[in-house]
Amino acid sequence: MATPKFAKTHEWIRLEDDGLATVGISSYAVEALTDLVFMQLPKVGRQVKAGESIGEIESVKAVSDFYAPVSGEVVEVNASLPNQLETLGNDPYGSGWLVRIRPADPAEIDALLDQAAYDALVKSQAH
Amino acid sequence: MPDTLLETPLCSWHSAHGGRMVDFAGWQMPVQYASIVEEHLATRQAAGLFDVSHMGRLSVRGPSALSWLESLLTRRVADLAVGQVRYTLVTSDEGPGGVSILDDALVARDSDATDGTPRLSLVVNASNRSRVVTWLESRLPNAGVTLTDHTLETAMIAAQGPRAIEIVTGLCSAEDAERIMSLKNYRSTSATVARRSAAVSRTGYTGEDGVELVVATADAVPVWEAIHAAGSPHGLTACGLGARDTLRLEAGMPLYGHELAAKSDPFAIGLGFAVNLAAVNGSPRSFPGAAAMRLMEAAMPDKVRVGLVFDGKRAAREGAAVVLPGDVATTVGTVSSGSYCPTLGTAAAMALVDRSVAAEGTPLDVLIRERPCPARVTPLPFYRRGATRS
Q: How far apart are CA B40 and CA A60, in angstroms?
């Protein structure tokens, strides 16, 4: 399984063997949100552009958007997730996935941050 | 925004214990430690410990202190007993017949000096402290009253929840413990807590039983740590401003800048009890803006404050439009505060709505990010301690 790449807006994306990309939210972002109460996922079949808001995640304190890391078509959403938001905290890179996207251009994924670059970003934002 | 944030004497403790520090009204304050929901529920089930040192603490002393505050506050002051606390509004004149609400506050007659000179205190909101002080200073008589802002030389700690009194009094002498346990709501006393002098009042902002302590800056950490250590085995948890806000929302308590603002009609938002307009010994009350308040009291308000409970957990935030069900074009009100409410298990909000839709049970929609979400008008408070609510 490929290692995930990261968007600056704290989504992760992983290109799977079937050519689809799984998208989720980084453990750092989930930990920063805490007390999640609501999530809105996009509709299957939606064409999305990289950087476009494709859903909302709400904690007790605030509402945040989450964004498509790459352009493509939403082919599947983790429909059980909004009713089991604790999964996001327990397994953010596994069963806490959000959507699966058929990337318009898989090279867009390569251009995102790798783990080391994302960790550096998180470190810089924590100060 | 100030260049440097003020720090309470407990700021280092918060940071060292995982507090997420934010700027709140110019103060560096913890919004939460681990989880707002857990802090909220700990306060309802056992006890929560809150640093509320950012609140403004003013003392008003001198032979004319009672009559001076009586002339300035919407609530009666002259008849306060020693050890009594009242919720009041602080108003200023705004031209002929006008009024501006500067803040809401607690006024207390803490103690009298041995010569009988009254010593009163005011606790005001952090966000309004400087303008309230400026206003009060502008109204000081030449003699007879001394006004002092003690905010920066004291700390204020709230212990709230069903176990709070037991935990705090466990740190007192038998005599002081007995006096605190027998304090009625909105009464205050002085006591020695964890070997430090404290002004103790049976007040709070959570809907729970509890006390608020004012101590000297140097005593803040020892008193806080003593309560924390004694309370932790009983489920006491340090709480940030996030839980303080969800707790007061469930308790239906107004927050200045949200439910209450300069131009609010206190009678429309359920604060008429804090405006005493009845004449005293034949003299009409004459606090600043009293004439305007009389007109408000006599008029039927167009809009009133209500509670709204949602089916889901998604929160309507301040400013969200309240509309008629299925009719997003007809706005009938505005949300003043809203959040997921941990004790309710759903979202709730307070809103100012047209009187015609304010009846209990009225279904309304609230636009949350442009999407109508169904809610129902519900009596305030949403949560009342000791009551079972499902």
A: 11
